User: Fold these one by one.
Assistant:
Number 1:
Amino acid sequence: MKKILITGGAGFIGSHVVRRFVNKYPNYHIYNLDALTYAGNLENIVDIEQKQNYTFIKGDIVDADFINTLFKEHQFDGVLHLAAESHVDRSITDPLSFVKTNVIGTMNLLNAAKEIWKGNYEGKRFYHISTDEVYGSLGETGLFTETTSYDPNSPYSASKASSDHFVRAYGETYGLPYVLTNCSNNYGPNHFPEKLIPLFINNIINKKSLPVYGDGKYTRDWLFVEDHAVAIDLVFHEGKNHETYNIGGFNEWQNIELVKLLCKLMDEKLGRKAGESEELITYVKDRPGHDLRYAIDASKINKELGWKPSVTFEEGLEKTIDWYLSNEIWLKNVTSRDYKKYYDNQYNM
Ligand code: NAD
Ligand code: DAU
């Protein structure tokens, strides 16, 4: 039985990946390592906690001794590394915690994998899950490809870029078998309501204002989280060693247009009158260093591995809204505790 470590599996994307691997691969034992920060939530994976081929481990990837001991004890065959500090706005107020988790944490995992595999890399693989934000900002045209130069602008993207460089450096220097993917903006169930889509869904439900940064003309490419999980599965099993794949939704939206669509769909779902939620839109102070546009060219993963998104944006948004409307308790739980303090600080209310 192969032993696979997934880090960050109590978070948004990680929980979808862990569920897929536990259910689809009974011949793997999946170890889910997560520190359960504000973004980690065992409620995201409650349906798999009793599975025979699954173990949850609470722990911090920044703690090198703990990580080394864990790797020695379990002798993992593969690592899917998703644990990270992931929110750009938080990286602006607390950049150091991003360096700790995203850079040092990744280094600790690389060192531990190198140490237990000792150059015997047959059947071993380190998969680093990263972001398109490492490429910086596009103008009105163009797409990020796998050969686009790195040009990160936020502390978050700088920390992810640094971790990407270390993964490749371990591949070149020590021969560590790695694959790396850079993905665009995900959305879907279990998304913590600090990010645009879940934050605005929660605010619309509660008739709170919708804080659009700057002029709202910033553009992102959106991908349904389950489609990302499928791509991750494919790259882990069929991607070529030492290769990078861009993953994207072929689905660019200006923030303001996306917010208007979300308002329309929510009004329909909530039985509110047309245009009611749009009245909540409030333009607020811009995010410092705000990247204008991200857009991914995902043709490499499409041509080489046959992956493409399966869900249209309207379908994905509808599934997402339905999930939030039928998971009121989840939403209440994650918006209690420290959330209110974060929200008030971030939006000065
Ligand atoms: P998330 O913030 O929802 O979850 C991160 C998880 O990592 C949480 O469960 C948290 O408890 C855990 N974690 C944080 N610090 C840790 C530490 N020191 N030790 C152990 N666990 C720790 O993030 P997400 O949106 O699911 O993103 C997952 C990964 O995918 C990240 O690496 C992120 O950079 C990348 N990514 C995210 C997106 C996106 O749109 N969300 C897009 C592309 C890439
Ligand atoms: O591109 C991939 C990245 O997408 C991931 O690597 C990150 O982990 C993930 O958080 C996401 O980053 P963004 O900064 O693009 O996502 P966010 O949801 O924070 O913001 C999306 C856009 O919406 C961005 O242009 C900022 C804007 N925004 C966001 C918030 C939270 C607002 O206008 N108002 C808000 O309140």
Number 2:
Amino acid sequence: MTAPRTPILAGNWKMNHGPSQAARFFADFLPLVQPADDRSVVFFPPAVSFAAAREAVQGRPDVRLGVQNVHWEEGGAFTGELSVAMAADAGAELVLVGHSERRHVFGETVDETVRKVGAVLRGGLVPVLCVGETIEERRADRAEAVVVEQLRPVLASISAEQLPTLVIAYEPVWAIGTGVTATPADAAAMHAAVRRTLAEVYGAQAAEGVPVLYGGSVKPDNAAELMSQPGVDGVLVGGASLDPAGFAAIVAAAG
Ligand code: PGA
């Protein structure tokens, strides 16, 4: 039997909350959330706020930190980029890879996500691979196909031993920052498609061990229903993770 998947409540701050705001956020947020070992709370602050976030969460092993992006090379002339080793040295445990803004605003390709996931795993950190379709792709009835096309090359590039380290986030592009959420049924269907793809490559039992989060306009008032869907193992939250009380309510919704 596979151990039940621990819910993950993740906040992606994107290009928000500089160091002083990050410190203020945690001063407000941490007292609202009691440490618990049956869930995992994760923040992805901007790189310049990482040190302030790390200092603020000292003594709270229930809160983990990650970075929003890395380069796959180990170092060198890559102005503006971060290596996995630097992120690890700074205290990051997780790395977002292939967030829809990276793919659609910055033109990140599937091949680049493959390289990044490989680099993150080699560096001993947890890749949170984001996948999701645009509204045009959904209307063309290609939502599942697109997500499978984003997933398969990454799955093909990692080993069965590395699979348990991977986290996947299904984030429909049309739901990100729009206030429109996937219906719980649509989310459940897409999560099932993700797990089917995992099972096709690695077998059903290995697939059961991989957490699959939902992201896209998750708010305190819809988080519980989304997380109650089969196969939804937590949430990746953008806008609503910037507000301490709001994100604390989302954490509480994990039960
Ligand atoms: P949102 O962003 O919650 O603001 O829609 C989600 C994400 O981009 O991870």
